[in-house]
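Lecture notes, part 5. Sequence design as translation. It can be helpful to think of inverse folding as translation between two languages: the language of shapes and the language of residues. The source text, in structure tokens, appears below.
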């Protein structure tokens, strides 16, 4: 009879642990998914911002005899622009290249309309994402325009402001959903742990009544919580990266290439899984340690 009771208790304990691990894995999978979406959304937001360029123009009026001197000056100016703080990427566009682009945009194959290269050479500058901010873009343009050799800097500021505001609005929504999933993760994991500890409330109180110290009672529960948190986090990460690998393979894009961000995401998932599990275990166990025997029947 005693043997059958022990077997029943072991099965119930095993079932309880499996339920907790699955709950942790599912919740952390969703949390990690939101983390991956947020990371990639930020990267693509920066990528789009970098496609918004300003054009710095050289002086178009000079004698043909000074062309070599002007070419050297433009080369030096281009190098100076490349190392400016707001500049992410710079591309030099010569007069010939500018004329060719103009013909292409107008659909003209002939040189009949262009007796000479009437377009000035220029530098196409992609700004760093933080300088696309409407509050900093004027500062960036001023810095570029102050470089010797540059006579004019033009940009479509209204387009930049609209794109910047829309991207930031999308990122704020994604961040908001990520925080919501974090709160849900805390609540759901906490509830799973509380149900597990609730099933052991009589064991906890019995250990306390026979003289066991609270630290002694808490220790095995905390160790078990760490183990369950690690297992749940590990399973959640396997599911997360499995689904993400399948998704990126299907669409033919690997998205973010920065492995450091994936590393921090893995640490975050493990940290959240273990921290919430341990804290929930301590709080739930402490509750029954402070309660009376009669309270155990009405908790």
């Amino acid at each position: 009879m005693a043997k059958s009771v022990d077997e029943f208790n072991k099965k119930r304990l095993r079932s309880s642990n499996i339920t907790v691990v699955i709950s942790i894995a599912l919740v952390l999978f969703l949390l990690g998914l939101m983390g991956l979406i947020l990371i990639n959304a930020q990267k693509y937001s920066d990528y789009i911002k970098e496609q918004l360029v300003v054009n710095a123009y050289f002086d178009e009026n000079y004698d043909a005899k000074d062309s070599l001197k002007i070419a050297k000056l433009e080369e030096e100016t281009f190098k100076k622009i490349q190392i400016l703080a707001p500049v992410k990427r710079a591309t030099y566009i010569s007069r010939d290249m500018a004329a060719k682009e103009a013909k292409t945009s107008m659909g003209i194959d002939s040189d009949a309309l262009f007796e000479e290269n009437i377009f000035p050479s220029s530098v196409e500058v992609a700004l760093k994402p933080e300088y696309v901010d409407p509050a900093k873009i004027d500062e960036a343009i001023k810095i570029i325009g102050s470089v010797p050799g540059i006579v004019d800097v033009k940009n479509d500021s209204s387009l930049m402001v609209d794109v910047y505001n829309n991207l930031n609005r999308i990122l704020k929504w994604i961040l908001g959903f990520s925080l919501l999933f974090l709160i849900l993760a805390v609540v759901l994991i906490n509830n799973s742990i509380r149900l597990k500890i609730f099933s052991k409330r009589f064991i906890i109180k019995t250990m306390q009544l026979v003289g066991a110290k609270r630290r002694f009672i808490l220790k095995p529960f905390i160790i078990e919580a760490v183990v369950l948190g690690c297992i749940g986090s590990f399973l959640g990460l396997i599911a997360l990266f499995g689904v993400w690998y399948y998704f990126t393979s299907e669409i033919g894009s690997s998205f973010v290439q920065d492995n450091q961000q994936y590393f921090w995401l893995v640490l975050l998932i493990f940290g959240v899984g273990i921290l919430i599990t341990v804290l929930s275990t301590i709080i739930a166990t402490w509750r029954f340690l402070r309660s009376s025997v009669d309270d155990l029947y009405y908790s």
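The translated text above is only one of many valid answers, since several sequences can fold into similar shapes. The chain is about 70% helix and 10% strand.
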